[in-house]
């Protein structure tokens, strides 16, 4: 199974998706939720070092936060994982204003037909809202979207939301991989660039933990010539440039601190390091620049 998209690449995909999820709805999955206002970062505070990130975290139009997790099997023990997710979201976003609301959405792939929605003990009750993708006819949905694309008909938001989860409507890892490849080929034919970017990046993120790493790399190479590939390269260059800048600032800071410790005139230090007098005075007082 996949070890997951690398942190940096996932961060790039998040930037892409955060611009395109706005106002889309989960109705295509059979879920009655307000439209999406914003896709939120999933790098939440962790309770243990080996704890995994939430699959998706959304802010909905009514101000509700929604955790969305994808599962290919039902385990009661997963409820403990969800409790950890809830605790982490509360730690980061809860405010004592009386208006905070959090929903937990579990989307089951085509491998699961039913699951218990509630986990209850004397001290806590956890309620999940569930969607079972087994109820979606993946082949029919694929053909309907393909016909629209072939005819030049613009896709609706529901079409795009359904397209990104089509691989998950299929049972078994081989079936998911085969459908994913078909969806990527189809998505590359979408005329509208924004919709194409959303479909390609969305399907990769949604299917991430259900496909093997080698296959994921094959798909990544296939989209390298698309706008997403260009964004990857742009972000990598910007990331590298930022690291160079940070290293240069660190080296100049260390040099300035050594010169200050030796009592060298501040004007001379300004000339060597390029720092202003105010910045050097902050360093001298133990503050960061």
Explained architecture:
With 289 residues, the chain is α/β, with parallel strands linked by helices. It folds into two domains: 12-225, no CATH class; 234-284. The protein is built from ten helices and seven strands. Residues 1-9 have low confidence and may be disordered.
How would you sum up this structure in a few lines?
With 289 residues, the chain is of the alpha/beta class.
Q: What's the Cα radius of gyration?
A: 24 Å
Helix content: 40-55%
Main sheet specs? 5 strands, mixed
| Unreliable segments of 5+ consecutive residues | 1-9
Beta-strand residue percentage: 5-15%
Shape: globular
Number of domains: 2
Q: Can you give the mean pLDDT? A: 84
Total number of strands: 7
CA distance, first residue to last residue:
44 Å
Oligomer: single chain
Strand order of the largest sheet: 1-2-3-4-7
SSE order, as H and E?
A: HEEEHEEEEHHHHHHHH
- Distinct helical segment count: 10
Query: Structural class, judged by helices and strands?
Result: alpha/beta
Secondary-structure map with pairings?
Layout lengths: L6 H14 L15 E5 L15 E5 L4 E7 L6 H16 L8 E7 L9 E3 L4 E3 L1 E4 L5 H14 L5 H9 L7 H15 L5 H15 L5 H10 L4 H35 L4 H8 L3 H8 L5
Parallel strand pairs: 3-4, 4-7
Antiparallel strand pairs: 1-2, 2-3, 5-6
Features:
disordered N terminus; 10 helices; 289 residues; single chain; alpha/beta; two-stranded antiparallel ribbon; 5-stranded mixed beta sheet; 2 domains
